Amino acid sequence: MSTPRRRAVLNTLANLPVFTSAQRARLLRRAGVASGAGTQFEQGFRVAGPSTLHIGRDCYFGFNSFIDCEAEVTIGNGSGLAEGARIISSDHDILPPDAVRMTGPTKPNAVTIGNQVWIGAGATVLSGLHVADRCIIGAGAVLTRDTAPGGVYAGVPARRISDVPNTFANTSEPTP
């Protein structure tokens, strides 16, 4: 079975509700998805395209999250995609009005997601971007530019709206 066909079949199998996150990870590894220890894949996670996907350790991929691998995609340690989040690694030109189609051929453009990045529900990271370490991309945002470290980005197009706090309260312990 050819590599793209194999990837498609294993990707489809991994989305069946009978598999656990660990079983999905094993199926996706066989499909060529390199992921580190502790990474979790919820049902509906999909990867498409011929290029390489590198995933660090302790990452999380929510229900129906999607990664387009027309170009290489690298995701750092401790990062995650919420439900329905997307990473797109390709683009295309708009052709002149006298062309048969409106869009030209696909142009792959690598995407890099840093360490400890959270991409919110329904957010989209477009091709060719670098998301710096410890960033949050808000739900529904469309990221069209590279980010600076430690920022919270929201909106369409996404813009930096605040800084990620350096510390978070430990909510597992009761307050006195």
From TrEMBL:
<dbReference type="InterPro" id="IPR051159">
    <property type="entry name" value="Hexapeptide_acetyltransf"/>
</dbReference>
<dbReference type="Pfam" id="PF00132">
    <property type="entry name" value="Hexapep"/>
</dbReference>
<protein>
    <submittedName>
        <fullName>Acyltransferase</fullName>
    </submittedName>
</protein>
<dbReference type="InterPro" id="IPR001451">
    <property type="entry name" value="Hexapep"/>
</dbReference>
<keyword id="KW-0808">Transferase</keyword>
<dbReference type="GO" id="GO:0016746">
    <property type="term" value="F:acyltransferase activity"/>
</dbReference>
<dbReference type="InterPro" id="IPR011004">
    <property type="entry name" value="Trimer_LpxA-like_sf"/>
</dbReference>
<keyword id="KW-0012">Acyltransferase</keyword>
